[in-house]
Amino acid sequence: MIIVARVIMDILILVGCFFAFAGVIGIIRMPDVFCRMQSSTNIATMGTIGVILGTTLWTFSNGNIAMGVKILVIGVLIILTSPISGHVICKAAYKHGIRPEKKMICDEYGRDNVNE
Asked: How far is CA 82 from CA 1, 46, 65, 88, 96, in A?
């Protein structure tokens, strides 16, 4: 049982590291601010999920329930706040005149700025 839990922990942490690595590559390779912001929120959400679940399983398997609960609460807060903050940062960049390199098919942000 301990070996199976260890393998699951390692796989979850590797999945989190993979998403973090893919997000970093995305930040380097994406053409504009909005695409880079999507990659950075990918790091904060998908990268965090695997690492949080792996470390939570590790703390629970070691009998440290209090630390496992704290890690889960931190993970939930990160998962809830990261996409919202990414959206707000993109909207602020759009309001300050930063536009994508290519014409957008659907410009929902522009619709909100018509009255300004």
From this structure: 35, 10, 26, 10, 21
